[in-house]
Amino acid sequence: MSEPHRILLVEDEELNRMLVKAVLARAAIAAVRDAELVDAETLSAARQRLADSDFDLILLDLNLPDGNGLTLARELAAAGTPKPPVVAVTASVLPQDQKAALDAGCDDFLDKPYAAADLVATIARHLGER
């Protein structure tokens, strides 16, 4: 049996973290359901988690207490090393917000509030699972 996928969830709102955990726990796709979810509530915590461990996917809130998540996306893109896919997850849903996320190095964009099925499908797509 292969190792479970590891997902870094960068999200400052506890309710949103609980929602993601609940959705993943009930996912019909085993690779999503069995994924190890690691939390980071701030940019600095996310940087530390990334320094300490490898991840297969990053779910990145853009509005964090210590800055904009796009800063982290830019840092990862500029690092010049392979990076996990980064999905911007935000309530900032204007077309220019999506463009800014993609320009910063995010691989995808998920609007809050999102349907559970959309979250699972987005994760599965980036983990290469169906």
Overview features:
130 residues; alpha/beta; Rossmann fold; five-stranded parallel beta sheet; 6 helices
Q: Using the alpha-carbon principal axes, give the shape.
A: globular
Largest sheet report: 5 strands, parallel
Q: Supply the CATH architecture.
A: 3-Layer(aba) Sandwich
Question: How helical, in percent, are the residues?
Answer: 40-55%
Backbone CA Rg: 14 Å
What's the order of the H and E elements?
EHHEHEEEHEHEH
> What spatial order of strands do you see in the largest sheet?
2-1-3-6-7
CATH topology: Rossmann fold
How many helices in DSSP terms? Answer: 6
Describe the structure.
- By secondary structure, the protein is an alpha/beta fold.
- The chain has one domain: Rossmann fold (3-Layer(aba) Sandwich).
- The chain is built from 6 helices and 7 strands.
- The chain has a 5-stranded parallel beta sheet with strand order 2-1-3-6-7, with helices on both faces.
- α5 links the parallel β6 and β7.
- It is globular, with a radius of gyration of 14 Å.
- The model has no long low-confidence stretch (mean pLDDT 94).
- Pfam families: Response_reg.
- Keywords: Phosphoprotein.
- InterPro entries: Bact_response_regulator, CheY-like_superfamily, Sig_transdc_resp-reg_receiver.
- It comes from Actinoplanes italicus.
- This is Two-component system KDP operon response regulator KdpE.
Ordered list of secondary-structure elements with their pairings:
Layout: E1 6-10, H1 14-25, H2 30-33, E2 36-40, H3 43-52, E3 57-61, E4 63-64, E5 67-68, H4 69-78, E6 86-90, H5 95-104, E7 108-111, H6 116-127
Parallel strand pairs: 1-2, 1-3, 3-6, 6-7
Antiparallel strand pairs: 4-5
